[in-house]
Design goal:
Layout lengths: L2 H13 L3 H6 L3 E6 L11 E4 L17 E6 H7 L3 H19 L4 H7 L3
Parallel strand pairs: 1-3
Antiparallel strand pairs: 2-3
Helix pairs in contact: 1-4
């Protein structure tokens, strides 16, 4: 799968987020990178920022956007075909967005989004 096709899969996954939920996302950008960090090369996605549940009254003063990064090569390595990639991207996007809303990995695994 080319980078452009992968980015389209990420875009499609974002389009599937319910409008009410997407409207509640605040100061967050979603990026695609080819490779995961060297210390975790199999990582599929990463949320970096301050979850909405932890933001205080003065949080936004000078804050950079939160980042959700979806990693292409680890996802491609995990999946056997295009359909699996699209499904895994959708799960990863939901998983990382959930972190933006303050939902931790244990809860996500319990809900089947781990």
């Amino acid at each position: 799968m080319t980078r452009e096709e992968f980015e389209d899969a990420v875009r499609d996954a974002l389009d599937e987020i319910p409008a009410e939920l997407a409207a509640m996302m605040d100061n967050v950008v979603v990026l695609v990178e080819d490779h995961a960090p060297a210390d975790d090369p199999e990582l599929l996605g990463l949320y970096e920022g301050t979850p909405l549940t932890e933001r205080g009254e003065f949080w936004a003063a000078g804050s950079l956007p939160d980042r959700i990064t979806i990693y292409r090569h680890p996802t491609l390595a995990l999946c056997a075909d295009r359909d699996e990639v699209v499904e895994e991207v959708a799960v990863t996007v939901v998983h990382e967005i959930a972190h933006h809303f303050g939902i931790d990995d244990d809860r996500l695994h319990a809900l089947g989004w781990g």
